[in-house]
Amino acid sequence: MTTADERLQLLKKRIRELLPKDVRITDVQFEGPSIVIYTEDTHRFLDDSSLVRMLAKELKKRISVRPSSSLLKPPEEAMKILRKELPEESGIKDIYFNIDRGEVIIEAEKPGVCIGKQGVSVKEIAKKIGWKPLVIRAPPIRSSIIENIRRYLRDESEFRREFLKKVGKRIFRKKLSTDNWLRVTMLGGCREVGRNAFLVSTPETKVLIDCGVSVGSEMIPYLYVPEVSPLDSIDAVILTHAHLDHSGLLPLLFQYGYEGPVYMTQPTRDMMALLLLDYIDVTSRDGGRIPYKSSHIRDVIRHTITLKYGEVTDIAPDIKLTLYNAGHILGSSIVHLHIGNGAYNIVFTGDIKYEHTFLFEPAFNGFQRIEALVIESTYGGPEDIQPPRKDAEKRLKEVIERTINRGGKVIIPAFAVGRSQEVMIALEHMKLPVTVYLDGMIWEATAVHTAYPEYLSRDLKEKIYQEQNPFLSEIFEQVDDVDKRREVIEEKEPSVILTTSGMLNGGPVLEYLRSLAPDEKNTLIFVGYQAEGTLGRRIQKGWKEIQFSTAGKIENVKINMEVETIDGFSGHSDRNQLISYVADMRTTPSKIVCVHGEGTKCIALASALHKRFSVETIAPHNLETIRFL
Ligand SMILES: [Zn+2]
Ligand SMILES: [Zn+2]
After folding, report:
1. Are 3-70 and 72-138 in the same CATH fold?
2. What is the CATH number of domain 174-382+572-627?
């Protein structure tokens, strides 16, 4: 008998002792980081939610309760009962079964009506069908990526069950070492923006945080160093957020044979899939090569374990993980690792926005304990001060109105994820007299945002719940094919066009630019960072003529349109916000590591934080290893 099995036996015994005698337990299993209790008395747990809380508190573990399989009515039969008994006025959109969890998910427009007073109606139905009902709000905009992922995971439920069992056994294995140390090896993303990857190691465990690409170059993280191999020595991978400089090479790990879990929030999973698929698509269209196939993206998805913000989760015998809101893009997380028995706490910020935005609450920094901090430094330089958001909105409005008044069109290039939705809400507030066209992946990304209102700012969440969803405003119109795009370009009336890519290095924006740039009535507005070497940066610097190659022919296009840059919409903290992020913590970490920024920015931020807080600060190079404990 292995040690994980022994622990399971002990847990079973303890759970029986803790629960009332008449609650029948059929089985107890490790499933990923959770302890799952199978019972014939699901209703007891539905009636008394304090039972699960009590168990979680006593055992200090994540607890899930599922109905024993013997209770489950066949799905077709259960479906009939559900259709008959659920109140019509709750607006049921979809019903589906999550076989590996014994759950039936009911998507309703009005979940409150469905659940009934004190949850009575749904509980009654649960007794009849055996399945555990989970009523969720139907997403206001359909998202094909979410539907595809859900379908895929349903098809993979057999695999998932085995996989989660295996992961559970590994997490709850017996600790072998009595040593206590902690180090982090920088595999990428130091003194640069791109290819983020940090390997956390203890005598017992290895955890990889992020595995990104350098967008626009071939450079990949240093995955071949001895610390990393063999890949199956890694216990867990954690993804902070979906942007490619953090997620772009996760599939490569699976190509190389990694078979373990990848932890992230649910919206990060969906956004990541969207961005990775698009990355393969765009790169191959441009004749580039990506070192993995779309089947490896599916591998990432079926190995993903999703966590909510604030859930403390065992990911190894000596590491507990908690994700917190990073305020940067949908689902973006700050990674808090609790090492050993309260020995040490290290936080990786990922990318953070420490300011209220339309979309998100500011990045979380209220940690109970934090000894070390690894912080992003994108805008860490002394000159990196951004104007207040209000000013940015005011300027945006001025420039757009000026253009409309002279009968011109406005092009706003933006990243599909994050900036676009922030700008959409700003545009919606302005009550413009023209149509705002959305082209590229923006609409799909917006759909994913509205599917997860609980990850959005309080204000926006309330609006969506009260059916005042600003994304559904009639000023927005989706452009979904080439003909429509032509129509938008040729239309006489002024309009605003929000489109990808953000730095003009591909995507529909180029088509608009080619046709609209020569006319001085039109305006191009940059709202995001333009990296060196991109077309966006060249136009920003004032180039008056650019070249397009269409079907092998080179075409020169004059840039006569007005070109404006409006700062203040960034999803990153500026220098002052980064410093305030540390200043506002309950306790100042005793070691701060500055990464994710050009060399000068990382050094500048490290020096500013050292002067201000008198703690050790470091701006490491790639391949350095820092010992923390
Ligand atoms: Zn990012
Ligand atoms: Zn980043």
Report:
1. yes
2. 3.60.15.10
352-362 CB burial, b ≥16 within 10 A, e <16: bbbbebbbbbb
CATH class, 3-70 region: alpha beta
pLDDT of residue 548: 83
Q: Ligand 2 mean position to 601 CA, how many Å?
A: 14
CA 376 to ligand 1 center in whole angstroms: 10
Selection from 259, 385, 265 nearest residue 325 by Cα: 265
Which ligand number lies closest to the CA of residue 194?
2
Which residue stretches of 25-143 are H helix?
42-47, 50-59, 75-85, 111-115, 120-129
Ligand nearest to the CA of 596: 2
Report CA(123)–ligand 2 centroid distance (Å).
Answer: 44
Residue 549: pLDDT over 70: yes
How far CA 353 is from CA of 150, 329, 580, 594, in Å, comes to 30, 9, 11, 16
* CATH number of the domain located at residue range(s) 72-138 in this protein: 3.30.300.20
Residue ranges near ligand 2 (ion) with Cβ within 5 Å:
245, 351
Using DSSP's 3-state secondary structure scheme, residue 362 falls into: coil
Q: Could you read off the pLDDT of 502-525 as tens digits, one per residue?
A: 999 888 999 999 999 999 999 999
Q: pTM of the full predicted structure?
A: 0.93
Q: Which CATH number fits domain 389-565: 3.20.20.70, 3.40.50.620, 3.40.50.10890, 1.10.1060.10?
A: 3.40.50.10890
Q: What is the pLDDT of residues 144-185, one digit of tens each?
A: 999 999 899 989 988 999 999 999 999 999 988 888 999 999
pLDDT per position as a tens digit, 223-276: 999 999 899 999 999 999 999 999 999 999 999 999 999 999 999 999 999 999
